[in-house]
Amino acid sequence: MAWYCVAGPSEYLAVTGPFINGTKFIKKGWVFIGQHCVPVDLTPQIIDIEIQAVSEEKLYFSLPMVFTIGPENDSDSLMKFAELMSAYDISSEEFRNFIRGVLEGQARALAASMKMDDIVSGINVFHSHVESFILPELKKYGLFAYTCNVKQLIDPRDGELLLAHKSRMDFVKLKSELEIEQERKVRETEFQIYQTLGTVAASFFTRQKESDGELYAKDNEARGLKTLAEGHGTFIRVLPNELGNTYAFLSDYLMRINPKTVSENGARDAVAENGAYLMRINPITVAETGARTVVVENGARATIAEAGEGSVAITPEDGGA
């Protein structure tokens, strides 16, 4: 004799007995004589708990939580859940108390490993840790936590814990603001230092360029003076040859000079009659050459001194060469 059985929308039929190895889960099928068929309800159950726990700092607190728990839809989980249902009815208070014990034990263990700041300020983090702690334990019974909601933390000491946490958070906020302000001041100081260093470096390079320009000008001036001195030396070497190396020629040259005035120091100032002749003798103008001492053939000495543009002062000197 046999019976055709059909499970409800949220049920499975757990069939045991002859010709079945262990437990067989079906939605519908024939159940023969000697076999036993039990419906297994897969409807998730809402279980609320209130955890009385102590944090890592030994602070006592109460945390209400709500879970939605039900069996997973696979053969291994259904097998474990069926074994659990052999002792409990899923809708019974005994089943709820059993699940509450599992959840509270795992949640207390988690709270004891966390600091109060982490629990209060990071409820989402605590929520994720709760799931990671509880899910492995529920899997032992073929159950799964579909939702896990953490309610507002309750301080059993008239808000003393929350006030202490608020004061601590205010201190942390003030400390962060002071650190940010200090960092801003440090950055401003560093910027001012870099700006000052840049200004000093720019001023140094400017002065260095000015010094290089002055040095270049002095070098050009020295080169010009060197060229002028070489020209003066050439004039002194060439003048005796131009005068014919004779005293008569020097006298003739001196006679071409027109006496004009006598200076305070006794030197004779004269104006040459023929400036072109002087330019032929000395390619460098008399005004540029300055004083010159000439030794003529018989040992007489004469000084040609500058007396203005295009004019000379010639002073005979006594004594031999």
Q: Which SSEs are present, and which pair or pack?
A:
Layout: E1 2-6, E2 11-16, E3 24-26, E4 28-32, E5 36-41, E6 45-54, E7 60-71, H1 75-85, H2 93-112, H3 116-121, H4 123-139, E8 143-150, H5 160-242, H6 247-255, E9 257-262, E10 268-272, H7 275-281, H8 286-289, E11 292-295, E12 301-306, E13 312-317
Antiparallel strand pairs: 1-4, 2-3, 2-5, 6-7, 7-8, 9-10, 10-13, 11-12, 12-13
Helix pairs in contact: 2-4
Pfam family, one: Band_7
Subcellular location: Cell membrane; Membrane, Caveola
Protein name: Flotillin-like
List SSEs in N-to-C order: EEEEEEEHHHHEHHEEHHEEE
CA(first)-CA(last) distance: 165 Å
SS field, number of helical segments: 8
Instruction: Please state the overall shape, judged from the principal axes of the Cα atoms.
Output: rod-shaped
Overall pLDDT level: 72
**Uncertain regions spanning at least 5 consecutive residues:** 258-321
Question: How many individual β-strands?
Answer: 13
Q: What is the percentage of strand-forming residues?
A: 25-35%
The computed structural class is: alpha+beta
Order of strands across the main sheet: 9-10-13-12-11
Largest sheet: 5 strands, antiparallel
